[in-house]
Design brief:
Layout (H helix, E strand, L loop, with lengths): L1 H12 L1 H14 L4 H6 L1 E2 H5 L5 H4 L7 H17 L6 H22 L5 E2 L3 H14 L5 H18 L7 H7 L5 H22 L7
Antiparallel strand pairs: 1-2
């Protein structure tokens, strides 16, 4: 009974995430052609292929990379099943998509290309944590400290991402995690203080 209720809730509220899940799976079966056409490519963007600012997050280095990120998306969908909504999810994730690649474009000039959902997933997770702050402040603060600590650690000399790189088949784009997290934090704060029902009460 509980499983049926859970699936019903996810189906009702999480259609955007489920659709995104399916799109990423389909694109994974079309590699390597999908990445050639859709990955974030600095020179292609400069040549006018602006869609890559968005589409680069939908393609991956391989199946391990794909399944790792889809697991993250699935966990977010499961954890925040009651807070999901098509309109909010699509807008928030689109902002994370574009914000992450704009950050890469301007702040990481040596990164010529990028694929993967992980940077945006950092932002998407933080967005929902901040948006739900009033529901459980201690949980939100603790989770944000853990995620923030991870992102900061990735940018220190102590960080070793070699095992992750071996798993996904390429270098871990830690800058994308940073930019995605910042964009997700800003988006979450805007939602919390300006767009949530509580913000309109006297």
């Amino acid at each position: 009974m509980k499983t049926a209720l859970l699936l019903s809730t996810i189906w009702r509220t999480g259609k955007f995430n489920l659709g995104l899940f399916l799109i990423i799976l389909i694109l994974a079966t079309l590699e390597p052609n999908a990445s050639k056409l859709l990955r974030f490519d600095r020179h292609a963007v400069e040549a006018g292929e602006w869609w890559r600012l968005f589409s680069g997050h939908l393609v991956h280095l391989g199946w391990a990379h794909t399944l790792l990120n889809l697991t993250g998306l699935g966990l977010i969908t499961l954890i925040f099943q009651r807070e999901l909504s098509f309109k909010n999810d699509s807008l928030a994730l689109f902002i994370c998509f574009v914000g992450t690649t704009v950050g890469i474009y301007y702040l990481s000039p040596t990164m010529d290309w990028y694929v993967g959902l992980s940077g945006s997933l950092h932002g998407y997770l933080i967005y929902y944590l901040v948006k739900g702050y009033r529901i459980s402040p201690p949980t939100t603060i603790l989770a944000l400290i853990v995620i923030g600590g991870k992102v900061i650690w990735e940018h220190t000399p102590l960080a070793d991402t070699s095992s992750s790189a071996l798993l996904i088949g390429g270098a871990v784009a830690v800058d994308s995690h940073l930019y995605g997290s910042i964009v997700g934090l800003i988006t979450g704060l805007v939602s919390l203080f300006y767009l949530s029902p509580e913000s309109h009460q006297n």
